[in-house]
Fold this protein.
Amino acid sequence: MTLGVYRHGHAGYRLRLDDSIRSHVAGLPETWQAITIGQLLSHTSGIADYDGDELTGRDGPFDVRRDFTEAELVQKVSQLPVEASPGETWSCRNANYLPLGAVIRSITGKFHGDILAEEIFGRLGMTASRVISDQEIVPHRAAGYERRGGTLYNQAWVLPTFNSTADLAGRDLKHWGRALCSVSVLAPATLAQMWTPYPVDGVVPEERYGLGWFVRIHPSGPIVEHDGACRGFTSHFAGYLGTGVSVAVFTNLHPYHSRPDQIGQGGAGLVDARLADLDQASTF
């Protein structure tokens, strides 16, 4: 399978989902030769994650209070153990996506956040979205919180390395939702490829995970969705493809204390009665 990477005004590049990650990122160990771009995108690579206090705590290899270069982080991720053979099982691991960001730099020569700004946010009019920046003045920026023993506290502080993912703004999600169902950014064939569950040992796993998306089956049509959590924030986005409805919910509270998925599903039912009973939706 081929994944097209589009650059506005340029001829574009072609990546194959079955390309070894080592063919695009230098310095990865030989044990990663069998790991493909498709497996990283679909969380079927088998590599371990860097979550957990032991790894991310003070003086740990992924100390969130220490600044790393992208190259340093790629090197550290490459030293994580391989928990399963590539393609053998599905397990959501944030570590899968860090080397994919390095692929973008190796192909374009640019930081993945700059590519997002140029090719996605800028083209869609998502003027409030950006890679997280503590220094920029962002109108209406929300603060994140966590709850401890019934008391609210500000989110735990981390250095910029671990805040280098895309910071989507609520007011911009209408543009994002429309783009997912149009050809303004991705071709229909690419969208269909993203929303096709990726096989594990030749079988579609129970989680029905595609390339960065969970896929559920509902009488109204497919539901493509994903949640996200960062220190002090939780989110959920769902596109109900058979109805034209998309719902995004953001909360500025630690994920242990907020359920944006339930809020979003309730809101979808208010917009379209067919979505009122999403218990009908199946991951099988």
User: Anything to note?
Assistant: Confidence is low (pLDDT under 50) at residues 4-11. The CA atoms of residues 219 and 281 lie 8 Å apart. The longest helix spans residues 112-124.
